[in-house]
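Dear colleagues,

For the upcoming journal club I promised to circulate an example of a predicted protein-ligand complex. I picked one with S-adenosylmethionine because it came up in last month's discussion. The inputs are reproduced below in full, followed by the predicted structure.
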Amino acid sequence: MAHSLYCSIPKKPISSIVISSPHIIFNSVHKFVPPVTPSLFPCRYCTWSSVSSSVAETDEHYRQSPRLVAKEYADLNLADKFTEDVGNLRIRQHVNPLRRALMIPAEAPNWKEVFGDATLPLMVDIGSGSGRFLMWLAKRNSSSMNYLGLEIRPKLVTRAEYWVNELGLKNVHFISTNAMVSFQRLVSTYPGPLMLVSILCPDPHFKKKHHKRRVVQKPLVDSIVNNLAHGGQVFIQSDVLDVALDMRDYFDAVPDKLVHVDSVDPSLPCDGDGWVLNNPMGIRTEREIHAEFEGCKIYRRVYKKVQH
Ligand SMILES: C[S@@+](CC[C@H](N)C(=O)[O-])C[C@H]1O[C@@H](n2cnc3c(N)ncnc32)[C@H](O)[C@@H]1O
């Protein structure tokens, strides 16, 4: 979603986390709670191309957002090598995941070939976008966790893999696929425990008749819950309340297997409506940076698996 904005308040990055053990998935220090002003309207979902160039101030505003992304991910030092070597990346704004061509499940890779140690605990990010978020985590937790990004837009995966190679990371891999149809096959073949699944700012598909295109549907939720190791966690978030509520309903619907984290971990405080106040990962996703820059609240939930 590098070219899109939904909704801004500049904020300081939350302190870094280190995943030091498979049992400690989030080990964050919450030093900063952003002052979020609730917006009267759902967050804007605008594109770079739709932004009028006639208003210089607005233009400047939209230029700020990618700069903030670059700043937040400065540690990765990715520069513009991909553009120099391969050229500019032109990607479609939205994809219909129910297109027949996208309903073919991906083959599981040979995990021993894609990860340095395929027995490490696994985090899967569904809709990984540019992949910077997972690369940042992978760099910090290079010997304790593997990271798998599932992304429906192939060009984003091509670039992410280019960056992974450039960074020399052996614990992060991206697969171009529709997570709705491939998640089960992929994770069920992974040799290690599935410890964390994230679905962060999924495409909103606003129109009611398009809600079936939203990535979080019952079969995917069942598959996540069934494959998650005991103590494993699910992290969901959206800057669109309707999307967050939709996801929440699905994950709240399995209370015998998933508990919301505020009932077991007081270090992740929630607001009065049960939304986790701070991003527990220590780094914001790109969409999250754009949305907060636009003044949107991020609606988060974190669940923990309590039963096999
Ligand atoms: C709004 S972007 C968010 C990207 C990233 N998670 C973030 O927060 O910055 C949603 C991403 O999900 C991808 N996506 C949408 N439907 C998908 C699906 N069914 N399977 C895998 N990826 C999907 C889109 O291509 C897009 O990159």
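Two points we might discuss: The longest helix spans residues 56-72. The chain has one domain: 4-305.

See you all on Thursday,
B. R.
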